[in-house]
Automatic annotation (TrEMBL):
Residues 88-445 form the Amidohydrolase-related domain. This is Amidohydrolase family protein. PANTHER family: ALPHA-D-RIBOSE 1-METHYLPHOSPHONATE 5-TRIPHOSPHATE DIPHOSPHATASE. GO terms for molecular function: hydrolase activity, acting on carbon-nitrogen (but not peptide) bonds. It comes from Pseudohalioglobus sediminis. Residues 1-25 form the signal peptide. InterPro entries: Amidohydro-rel, Metal-dep_hydrolase_composite, Metal_Hydrolase, Metallo-dep_Hydrolase, OTAase-like.
Amino acid sequence: MKQILTKAAIFSAVLVGATGGTANAQEGAFGYGVKHDHVVIRDARVFSGCSKQLADADVLVSGNMITRIAPDLQAPEGAVEINGEGHTLIPGLIDAHWHGMYATATIGEMMTTNEGHWNLKTSIAQRDALYRGFTTVRDTAGPMFDIATATDTGIIVGPRVYPSGPAISQTAGHMDFRMTRDVPATPDNLHPFEKMRQFYIADGIPEVLRRVRENLMLGATQIKLMAGGGVTSSYDPIHTKQFTLDELKAAVEAADNWGTYVLTHAINNEAVGHSIDAGVKSIEHGHMSTVENLKRMKKEGVWLSMQPFMDDEDAPALNEFQKAKYKFVTDGTDFVYTNAKKLGLKIAFGTDTLFSADLAKRQGAQLAKLQKWFTPFEALKMATCDNAELMAMSGKLNPYPEGPLGVIDEGAYADMILVDGNPLENLDLVSDPENNFKLIMKDGTIYKNTL
């Protein structure tokens, strides 16, 4: 007996916790989804994530995996069928530079509340990211281990999380958010934010090794260090190189011993080169990079995880010191994207939204901004197939090893979006997920269906 899944069906399942037939309501603290044994999506144009060619095929989901892709496929008995005619089926989006803990909380909230408040706020931010179509995030700083576990176990609803854990900073580095009254520090007197894993301060090889290993112990899938000056931090000019080469190399070796890699915050060109010298595999930002360092990244297989920061309506609220630093970032965006594309670098898409619920809502709009430098296909591939390749660099620490992410292929995780229209022709569709994303599925569970 075929079942047709509708918005009303989801609503009914959620209301009564339906388990009749093959449906099971999956209830988290901040959202709902419905999972079926088998779901068939018919008559949509299918974007694999990696190929420009759209396929006319049906897609069968069994459990949490894509098991069959073929025209006019025969559905298993009891399968739910979804009519995707007139829509494009794309892989779930991946944000490679996300801060779940900091995306929507203001700095004032972070300073005046505690872990309970932070986790509740983060749970809502994660739920909202999923409903914008982001089914996976690489979290690049913050105490996200419990959020990741709560998501995977169904306590809360949100994207898959690749957690880096607390970012590791040198004293006076980009993640040193202590007040001047907190200095001098002593080894037996950690700052409260360090105890709550908002950030770690490490000076010298032994401290760097300890912090890297502690993050790995807690469940980090990759390691984040701050290798240069940043915009939002209070003490470090944008030009600064942070950590010695030996400190960075120690972190890279410790991560490599666990089969994973290091990513560094590196905006200025010297910090980028310093990171490459140390064996870092993912440069976060890199907006002041020279062609010489971009060529080095290409040669050594280093990823450029950059954001389309411009002096526009999405520019963050900053003080004068921060604005002066931000100008160096925006001045380099066009040059670096243009040359990175020309050189054929591996480029990741991420948003790096901080401290603004309004900016977080524009997560998809940041992807659409890439049209200034990339075709819609290139941008969508970056946010799906390419970003998934970066996630997989976590190796044996990959928390999702059963199949690939970021693609619609047999044997892949069932993370998919039905888009009203064709985003390969009009990437602006991803800027308005509320109206244009008609179905959102993650891990085979349907979280939205308005067809």
